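Researcher: I'm preparing a figure for a lab meeting and need a structural model of a single chain. I don't have an experimental structure, so a prediction will have to do for now. The sequence is pasted below. Please return the structure as tokens so I can convert it later.
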Amino acid sequence: MHPEILSITLFGIVAAFTPGPNNFVAFYSGFNFGIKRTLPHIIGVTFGFPFLLLCVALGLVNVFKLYPLIQLILKYLGTIFLIYLAYKISFSGSQSKRKGKPKVTPIICGSVLLIPKLKPE
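Model: Understood. Here is the structure written out token by token.
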């Protein structure tokens, strides 16, 4: 048995039962938009995290060992993405300053599928 499979299995079990950022975002979305409009987010989390674990278990670790440049590129892309998000949040302004009714929508399934892959951890 490969040590990577054991470690990713233990990580998956622990991560599945502890609250994380997706739980808080789903809570916020459900509170503000209702359960019906939050379902795409919940479905994205439900399929996104196991998909990430499956990719790692099927050999993504070996790809990173063979080509460490890919991991380095992903780390920098994730960092740039987080800086971009911080910039957008810091210069977004308040909703009271905007004209008209603000358009607020919940997070959709496709967005949630990308979030775990872009985190530079």
